[in-house]
User: Fold these one by one.
Assistant:
Number 1:
Amino acid sequence: MGIVADDITGAGDIGGLLAGHGYAVRILSQGADWEGLCARLAQERTDALIIDTDSRFLPPDAARERVERATRALMATGCGAYWKKTCSVFRGNVGAEFDAMLGTLGENFGVAVAAFPKNGRTTLHGDHFVRGVPLPDTEFGQDPVHPRREVNLVRDLGTQTPHRVINLPIETVREGVRAVRTRREELEREGVRYVLADAETQSDLRVLAEALSGERVFLGSSGLAEELPAVWPPVEPFDPLSGARWTHPRQVVMIAGSVMPQSRAQVEHYAARGGTVHELDVDLALRDPERASRLLADLALGTLHTHDTVLLRSPNSPEQVEAAREVGAALGLHGIEVSQRVSGVLAEAARITACEAGTQKLVALGGDTSAALTRALGVTHTVVVQELAPGLPSTYAPDEGLLLVLKSGSFGPPDFLALAIDHLQRAHGEQA
C-alpha cells in the first residue's frame, strides 16, 4: 500500500495502526529523495510505504503539486492500493490533495472516512465531533493559527473541490456491508466524486472496512486502518529494531511546541512527577534563534549530567501564545511563521543536545514540532516500531540510529510522556 500523509505525525498515526498488525511500515520524510528511496525500500520488506508531504498548511496549489509527485513515486513501486491520509478533523488542503491523488491515479471516485472513534472523532450525517462536541466548539475551532469553524465535512470538502460530495449516512452503514456496497456503486454511477461516510463506533468502521476492502483508493483519517488488516490477507511478523544499537539506552530528550490542551496536560503530568522542564525564551527565539537554541541546549545538557530525561518546551498558555504573536508581528512575522520559528528553535536545541550528549531517543509533541525535529536531525526515512496509544507510534531511523516518538499535539492521555519514556528506555537493541 502507498500512503500520502500531509504531516509527519499523521504518517506515524496511520503507520502505527498498520504496524500493530505486523506490517512492515516505512515513512519517507518531506525533503527526502522520494523517488530514490521508494526504489531502494521496494527492495526490502515493505508492506506499507508512507510519504510525508508536510503540505497541510501550504497554499493549495503547492500542496497539490507535492501530492502528485508523491503519488507518482509510489506508483513507480507498483503499489496495489493507495491512501490519501488527512487530519482527523480535516485541517489543511483536503480537497486539493484528494483531487491530486485521484487525478494522478486516473480514478474518478473515492470514499472518505474522517472518523477515528478511539481518539474521540466521530461523524454523524456529515457533522464532525471531537469527544462528542461539535468541531467548531472544540480546541480546533479555537486554534489561534488554523481554526476549524465548519461542523459539516461534506460542506467543507465541497468548498475545496469542484466535484460532487455526498454523505453516506449512519443509517446505511448500520444496515451492513451489502447496503454500503450497493449505495457506493449507485453513487459512483451517478457521477459523485467523493462520498463522506459517517461512523461513530469501531463497529461502524468494521462494516466500512469490509465493504470497502477491495477499493484501490482510500481517503481520510487513519481510523479505518485499524479495521482493514482484519479483512486483508495476514502478513508475517516483522522486527523493525533489528540491528539497533544504543549508546545511552535510558537517555531521552523531549520537546513540546504544541498549543493543544492535551500536550499541555502531558507536560504538566511529567513535571508534576519530578521531570525537569526548561522553557524556551520565545522573545529571544524570535529575535535571535541561533542563540536561543544554544542556551536551551546548554540547559538540557546540564540536566542530562544527573538525569536520564529532560523536556524543552515553548510557553503555550493562550496569553503566552498571543504575546508571542505580537512580538512576531513587530518583527514582520505572521502567525504560522512565528509557530515555525519556535518549532525550529526547539528542534535545533534538541539536535545540539542529542549530538553533544550522544542521545538517540527523542520525543516531539506537536505536528510542526515533529516535522522541525526530523529536519534538524536530517532524518530521511523511518520504520514504524509500535503503537504506544491510539494514533501514537514510535519510529526508528535506521540510517541515523535514532528512536523517535513524534506525537500529534491533540492525541494521547495525560500520562503519555511516562508511557513514551518507558517504551524508549526498554526498547530492545544492543549496547553500543
Number 2:
Amino acid sequence: MPASARRSRTRSGRRCGMVTRHDVTGAGGLRLAAWEYGTSAGPGAATPTGAGAPARTGADRSAQADARAAAGVAAAADKAVPDGGGEPRLVAPRPSEEAPGGQPPGVLLLHGELGLASHWAATARHLAPRYRAVALDQRGHGHSGRPAGPCTPEAYVQDALATVEHLGLGPVTVVGHSMGALTAWRCAVRRPDLVAAVVLCDMRASAVGEAAQREWAEWLASWPLPFATLDDARQWFGVDDPRADPPDPVRGDFFAEVMSEREDGWRPAYEAAHLLRSREHWIRDAHWDELAQVRCPALVVRGPAGELGRAEAQEMVRVLPRGSYAEIADAGHLAPWERPEVWAEVLDRFVGEAVAAREAAGSA
C-alpha cells in the first residue's frame, strides 16, 4: 500500500487536544494504535470515545494518572543533570555520525510487557514542544490488535519500525522501558538508517531464565481479578501484593492504569497467556552480541532498586560501542514514573546532545 494511502488511515475523528491516534499496520497485518502528542495536549485527551471505541481503561478514568501526566511538563528542557548529590550520573555519548532528519526530530516511546502507551503520556507531553513524540500500544496491549498466535521479538521489532516509517519519524530516538528496551536496541541493529539513538531503561542483557519465568507466571495468576473498582486495583498492586514491599502508591497507579472496564469489573488490557508466550521467545537468551551491534548513541538507565543491577548496566555500557549511563536515585523498575522530573532531565540531555551531534555531522 502506498504511503499516502496508509496515512489516510489516521483517524482524524479521534484527535483531541493535540493528541492524535494513528492506525499503523504491523507485522502480519495486525492493526496497531500509535499516539502522537502535541504541545497543547490536555490530560486524558488521547483516549478515543464514541461508537466503536475500545473498552475504557484505568488511564481513561484515573485522575491520578492525569496528574502525573501534567507533572511531567514541569522539568526544564535546558536544566543540566547534576553529577553528584545522589542524582543521576550521566556520561555524554560520543558524537553521532548520522545525517540530520529534517523537521522536528522523532521520538518513539515503547512500553514494557505490563505497560501501555498511555504510561508515556507525561514523557511525551514533556518532549512534544521540541520533538515529534509518539507512544505505541504494542501488539496485544491497549488499543492495538490481539494476534492469533504468539508474539515473537521479531514481530515487535517489525511493528516499531513500521510505526517509524508510517509516521515519517526517522531518524528516530527510540525510548524503551523493560521489554520495550529490548525492542529498541533490536530496531537499532536492524535499521541503523532509521534509528539514530536509543534509551534503554531497566532491561537486562543477560538471560532471565526459566525460574524467573515460573515466578512471573505464579505472580500473574495471583492477581485477584476482576477488581470491583480502580481503587481496589491501586490498593492491591500498591499495598496488598506481596511484591509491593514496601508499599508503593506509584506502583498502584501504574497498574491501575492498565485496567480495562468489563462487564464483571476491571481487568488488565492484555492477557496473561499472551505475556507469558511472548516472554518464552527471549527469556533463555543473553543479548550481549546484539548490544555490540548497536552503532548509534545508547543510554542505559536504571534505578538502584530496579531489576537491572549496577554491574550489569555498566557492562552493557562497555559493550555498547557508543554507550552511556544514567542512574536515577531513589527509584526502581518504574524509574520514569517514580522520579519523573529527574527522568525528564536525563532524557532531555541525552536526546538533545544526540540530535545536536547528528545535525552538526550533517552540516559539516
Number 3:
Amino acid sequence: MSPFEVLQRDAVVAQAELWLRTPYQHRQHLLGVGVDCAWLLIEVYHAAGLIPSIDPGAYAQGWHLHRSEERYLGWLELYGRQIDTPQRGDVAVWKFGRTFSHGAVVVDEHRIIHAYRDIGVEFADMREERLSSHTVRYYTLNRYGVSDGGQQ
C-alpha cells in the first residue's frame, strides 16, 4: 500500500469519527443532527474525495424487509469492488432482512463506525451478536491510491 493510500484511508476514518454521537435519523445527513448508515457512508467517502456527491434517492426505512433488489450492493459495486479481507477505511455491509442493507466504515480488524437505529453513530465491534449473526461482505473503493491532482 502506498503512503498516499494510507493517507486516504486515514482520512476516511477521520471523517467517520467526526460523525460519532450523531443521532440515527432515516434518510438524513446532517452532522450532529441525524444520519442513517447509507448517508454516513456517502458523506464520509465524498468528504475524503473517494466518491462524487451522490443521492441514493428515496427509500423506505424497511425496504430491505420487503424487496429483493440489492440496492446497497449496487452502489458499492459502482464505486468499489468486493474483497475478502478488509483494511482500514473499507466498507463492511451486512445482510439484514432480504438484502445487504447495513453498512459501516472499517476502522481495524474488529472495529467499525456505523449509524445504528436507536443508537446513532458509534464505534462497534463486528464480533457483537447484533452484527456477527448476519452475513457480511467487504468492499474497497476504486479510488484508493488514485490522486485527482487536487482537482476535487
